[in-house]
Amino acid sequence: MHFALPTSRKTLTVSAGLIALPILFSACSSSDSDSNDTISTDTDNSVAIAIPFEAMSNDVAVDCDTPLTGLGTAGTDAALKDFRFYVYNLRLGTNQGRQLVLELEENSWQQDGLALVDFQNKGDFCDGEDKPTHKEISGTVNLETGESIDSVSFTIGIPEALNHQDQTAAESPLNITSLFWSWQTGYKFMRLDIAPVGGVTRPTDPAYNNSTWNIHLGSTNCTGEPQLGETVACTRNNRPQIALDNFDPATSTIVVDYSALIAAASVGQDEGGAPGCMSGATDPECPTVFANLGLDVVSGDVDITVNQTVFQLK
Amino acid sequence: MKTAATFYCVIKRSPNRTINRADNRTICRTSQNPFFILLLITALLCGCGDSSETTFDDGGVSVTNFQWSLPDNFPLPVEPMDNPMSEARFQLGRHLFYDQRLSGNGTQACADCHDQALSFTDGLAVSVGSTGEFHSRNSQSLLNSAYNSTLTWANPSLITLEKQIVIPLFGDNPVEHGINDSNKEIVLTRIKEEPRYPPMFAEAFPEHGEPINYQNITRSLASFVRGMVSFNTPFDHFERGDANALSASAQRGRALFFGEDMECFHCHGGYNFSDSTVDRNMQFVERPFHNTGLFNIDGNGAFPEGNQGIIEITGDPADMGKFRAPTLRNIELTAPYMHDGSIASLEEVIEFYAAGGRIIESGPKQGDGRFNPFKDGFVNGFELTPERKTDLISFLKSLTDRDFITNNRFANPWSTTE
Fold this sequence. Notes:
The complex is a heterodimer of chains A (314) and B (418). Chain A has 314 residues and is mostly beta strands. Chain A contains six helices and 22 strands. In chain A, the strands form five sheets. In chain A, strands 3, 4, 5, 7, 8, 10, 13, 16, 19 and 21 form a ten-stranded mixed beta sheet that branches. Chain B folds into three domains: 4-58; 87-229, Cytochrome Bc1 Complex, Chain D, domain 2, CATH 1.10.760.10; 234-403, Cytochrome c-like domain (Cytochrome Bc1 Complex, Chain D, domain 2), CATH 1.10.760.10. A two-stranded antiparallel ribbon of chain B has the order 1-2. Chain B is globular.
């Protein structure tokens, strides 16, 4: 695990560096290195894994160019504005009962065990020029002879140690300004924005109109300031845990079903709070969105009494 | 009170007091953050080099390399461990603060909503961003924001200027400076191409090979804003023993202000006239927020949608309508008032508090704020005679620091040759 090191580290004199380095090393060592040690003899069985994602809405692939139709309780049509989310803690279960950490390939979409999944194929909220997408998470695991993968699990979000870093110095994919959630001192874990045809109105306020209906998922009610030596803590973590059985890396695709996520909402309307659901515990649009992600909207924890309905295997 | 002890360990400055070393050791050991230790070492080393004013023996807590120009015996503001104050960073931040190139479309500088002549406010009810979007909030005075225990009108999570500045630069709801993924490199190129900047960045961040980046931009801006300290008002002179600094009316107003009838000082107390204040001498940091009864739309305490205070952060229903009490220093210059700029004059503000809340007779915001169930217990009204009102306003005007709004150190540097 790597921390966002303040650049003042570099201002240290040589003597300070000598003092500081052991502290840093001891602080930054992680259990990952231990597990690497134990399986280092199995490097011959290192297997490259690619986990493909598809975003669908009412059985139509989601991208900037295709209208979304028949959404929610009112069957609303809409244009896509944004469709991205972060994933970490990827684990693969095997037929021998092991849970293996997927060691992610490091690239501009993936760092420190974290990946951005991005279906937004045009910049500027789908109004700009073509931009790359990232629909496949790549990494490696070490399998023993005869061992095969049969399940996958992951967390939606950004781990605490990365979520509150200095965004102005963050590396890709954590340097994307439209995913900064600075007023909540972190990042948007998931940003799914649409522009409903006819805009968003509010039944209680005839003067209200907004162009987009948004889902912004992220940790809220955070306190503590790393720059002052404090540990940041958020009382509502809002990190969905997804576990999918019968996963075969050779044939399976993880489908993200937007129409299922907003199935209980009327996306051309907003009953209150932010237009859509921006993780507000009292926002009328949030309870069903959170439940469909397997989260309790009040505590922000995983709600084991509900099953998430958004991620499925194909 | 989770932060106080760690704070103390890092920042306590008390040359005239005894430092509790046992406390220091205990708290430092309990810190979970490796940077904390690292930066403490940095701070200590800085202290060694500053022999004229500080010594290692005071615990490294009075260390500063910046000429704060504070009155005698005034506590220093907190300096983040990874962005200690320096004159070079202050001056670089000053240039960036007044530079419209630091916006997506090149039309907006920090100074456009924070005008020195208005104590770094803009005179509008709510501010307007670079692309024309309205902010939901009134531009705040930046004076003494180094002493704010939280920043902006209502955000218990925002404790450092470095974190706060990311919001106007990159925020998209609303768009302020409008720097985004499409233009952020273009904006940075504009900064790199200004001949004044490369040597200033190099001086401010000598350890960096390529110092012109957004991290150093925000650090410099934070250093400039942090350096905007102001304690040179008639009130301050009076408190330091100049009995003639306040008129008789202002002195009567002072008694009213600090009296238990009007209760003003409960929220606007202390040397910075805000209960949301932190400095290096404080062992316990408070970060309070208050509902003053401006609205009560549904009879259950509701404030207008999209501008409801810290409930937007905490989600706690009891936090409806709670905002930070701003400093009253230079309040004469920062109309209109309140988080939404909905009260035009000081006279009306005083009438509002005298009534113990605001009654809105009609329209979508109709409601009797006096009966807002979340209203602060100290906003319960008081008797207001014309004389009392005049005296209170005389006192509030004694909180105006004219030097601050004309001080060249805070002025636009691009119009000069320096």
